[in-house]
Specification:
Blueprint: E1 2-6, H1 21-32, E2 38-40, E3 43-48, E4 51-56, H2 63-74, E5 81-91, E6 94-98, H3 107-116, E7 123-129, H4 137-141, H5 148-165, H6 170-177, E8 179-180
Parallel strand pairs: 1-4, 1-5, 5-7
Antiparallel strand pairs: 2-3, 3-4, 6-7, 6-8
Helix pairs in contact: 1-5, 2-3
């Protein structure tokens, strides 16, 4: 069993912000699979055979609460999950699969690490940068995207990456997706 987790904030006012790119990717995957979300594990949840999907409703900084509840219920190991989230340090149009790592200053990842007690879980970073030099990070990540066409392209590619995560080994995932796609 595998679980795909998209990070974001649940309120409608955050729907199209840079910080919600994890939700956006999962929304596309769920749409392709024609899945409906239910309210479970303090998140929006769906199950498709042996694949679980979770969008935490606990807000970004407390994402780990929902993730740990789902992992405990299904007895998942950290290696069984893929967390999809925004990364300001890479440009819009770039993706990065990582098998494990630090929180990199991302509060959602920090919360997951704290709640599950491990940083050894796969992740897909979706570039949202660059951050303008004079703009505080919290303002930048909570802004709507201005480059919608570019965003739509990277969301489509990230969807393929999520599906490939279920079928490919990590070396192939990284060689196929870890780059600037346009």
């Amino acid at each position: 069993m595998k679980a795909i987790i998209g990070l974001g904030n649940p309120e409608i006012k955050y729907k199209n912000t840079r910080h919600n790119v994890g939700f956006m990717v999962l929304d596309r995957v769920l749409e392709k699979r024609k899945l409906t979300l239910t309210d479970k594990f303090e998140g929006f949840f769906a199950k498709d055979n042996d694949v679980l999907f979770l969008l935490p409703k606990t807000y970004m900084n407390l994402s780990g609460i929902a993730v740990s509840k789902m992992m405990n219920f299904y007895k998942l190991k950290p290696q069984d999950i893929l967390v999809v989230f925004d990364d300001v340090s890479i440009p819009l149009g770039a993706l990065r699969f990582r098998e494990k790592g630090s929180d990199g200053g991302h509060n959602g990842i920090k919360s997951i690490i704290n709640e599950i007690g491990s940083s050894d879980f796969p992740r897909l970073k979706v570039g949202i940068g660059p951050q303008p030099p004079q703009m505080p990070l919290e303002h930048f990540v909570l802004q709507n995207f201005s480059e919608v066409e570019k965003l739509n392209k990277v969301l489509d590619i990230a969807c393929y990456g999520v599906e490939d995560f279920l079928n490919l080994d990590f070396i192939h995932l990284q060689s196929k997706y870890n780059k600037v796609h346009f």
